[in-house]
Prior knowledge:
426 residues, alpha+beta, 12 helices
Amino acid sequence: MAGTVRGGLSRRGLISSVGAGAALAGGLTAAFVGDAASSGNASAVDDLSYPFEGAHQAGIVTPAQDRLHFAAFDLDPRATGDDLIALLRDWTDAARRLCAGSGAGPVGPLSGSYDAPPDDTGEAIGLPPSGLTITFGFGPSLFTDADGVDRFGLAARQPDALRPLPHFPADKLNHLASDGDLCIQACAQDPQVAVHAIRNLTRIAMGRAAIRWSQLGFGRTSSTAAAHVTPRNLFGFKDGTMSLRAEETPAIDEHVWVRPGEAKASWLVGGSYLVARKIHMIVETWDRSSLREQERIIGRTKAEGAPLSGGKEFDQPDFALPGRGGQPLVDPTSHVALAHPTHNSGVRMLRRGYNFVDGNDALGRLLAGLFFIAFVTDPRTHYIPLQTKLSQQDLLSEYLQHIGSGLFAVPPGVGPGEFVGQALFA
């Protein structure tokens, strides 16, 4: 991702000059990307680049990449409203360059003054764009802090839905790994490309904002494109079968994008809300459970992801179909039964979660799980009621601990010359 080598030739230009096909990188469709990823055509996916500009921010309906680096930031206590705007301008300029396959700065890691720090850290020199997307979000504390102080004069424009997520039953949150004034989601096919993006945006923020917490993720746990094969989580089950796909345009409009209505949230129309939850999966206990019990808890077969009522993966479960002893084949307290849209007023989410492994604890147990990310049009209707029910009734909750949490408003996309969230400050 590092952009300019001495002599002025960008990394992406260098790749193009040896036949990597810049036109291919700029023109592939989402369906082709999904096909390439599922068929193992790594070269086509790595050379792909997504434009940063557009009606919506990339990294939402974009076909989910395999790697994630997510970071939440707190602004410096001394930062002013002008500092915030300047930071967002600088981040936007850098994101444009990074997503295009160039360096974070206009000069690049190998040019400029030899006696000054480079404007890009350089660890992605020679790497292709790898489908990098960078998505920005604003937390509730950007508008009013925990003491109710309006630090940047934005309180009057805080959407009613943008409030800290409640403490759900059984939550064991680490508050130093939750929330934040701002967030950045960087997704790519190559982990180094995603890490490079967060590292350089963090460097650009120095003196104005600092990372509050961050998370690396691998192995997407949701499908956002029809061509994707449904991935598996660390319990070994297919995850996100009912998640929205980008091709479901009417459903995306209904369940993901913020629509006009609330006057003080007019700046967010065309954007979305990002729900982030870090979920520790107690894999050692799960691994000692029988296959029969695992399938009963999930409500689907482990092999194909089909509902226990019969059929194939994407067939609708029959929650009333009786089995042995007249009991429903799909347990009413299984994860599928409780989370299914038909049992939640038809509400659906666009999920972009990832597996994570953060090493192990002192007893040798894996600190592993799911970094859950969902984009919704309103968390009050599309997430909070569902999570409240799951935390109280779901058989799966015995094997889960929610240890991190955050909610962010994701502004709409930017046009030429604009910066992310610009309408908020108009």
